[in-house]
Amino acid sequence: MTSSATPGSRAQANRQRILDVAAGELARNPASSMEEIASAAGVVRRTLYGHFPTREALIDGILDLASEDIARTLRPLNPDEPVAVTSARCTIALWRVGDKYRLLLKLTETNLGARIAERLAPVHEHGTAMLRHGQQLGIYSDHLPAEVLSRALAGLVLALLEARNDESWTEPEPQPEVAAARACLITLGVPPGEADEIAKTAAALEARTAVANNPTEAAS
Predict the structure, then answer these.
(1) Closest Cα partner for 152 from 131, 137, 173, 167?
(2) Domain residue extents for the chain
(3) Are 184 and 156 in contact (CB under 8 A)?
(4) Is residue 183 within 8 Å of 160, Cβ to Cβ?
């Protein structure tokens, strides 16, 4: 009996498995070698190097995977949904992706910051448009341009993720992403009590979206 998988599909499956395993291995131990990653992925070194000739290429592959996940966190402006709720939903979705990759921030590869910034560019563009809309509505503070605020918020989320890394921030709330969304809203000038309610509403909406997108997983 012959396999229905084509050589190309097998190669793609190998590449995806290597990236998934490498992200986990580097999160567990940023100093993991290519040989250790190949072993953990269940492939020989030749297969690993065939897909990723260098460690830098492998890390770029992981960053590309992360950027694809990040692209799925962007929520379009919805006239039927308050812009502050949409902003908080973006923060919560982004946090969950960032949390998956947060230990990669410990990597010391050359120019890693610039490589991450390049992949975050669509997030900044989307965030800038959303913040500018909120400023025009008078919901967000306009003490800084929307583009600057977008970058400041991204920096805040990354700082909170790093604080989770080194355990200097151990938010007692079951969902630290709700606390992150609340912090971003407060930074934008939303009163703390209101920001708390908005963040919780956004978390509930994101939970419903997750169930709708993965009904089988939710049922189990």
Answers:
(1) 131
(2) 7-53, 63-219
(3) yes
(4) yes
The highest-level CATH class for domain 7-53 is: mainly alpha
The two three-digit tokens of residue 209, written as one number = 């979206």
What is d(CA 104, CA 83) in angstroms, rounded to the nearest whole number? 31
First-to-last alpha carbon distance for the chain, in angstroms, is 33
| Residue range 63-219, CATH number | 1.10.357
Per-residue pLDDT of 48-83, as tens digits, reads 999 999 999 999 999 898 888 888 888 888 889 999
User: Residue 52's pLDDT is what?
Assistant: 96
Amino acid found at 50 = G
Q: Which tokens belong to 49? A: 């190097």
Tokens linked to 72: 């799925």
C-beta separation of 146 from 135 below 8 A? yes
- Give the C-alpha separation, 132 to 193, whole Å: 23
Q: Which amino acid is at 3?
A: S
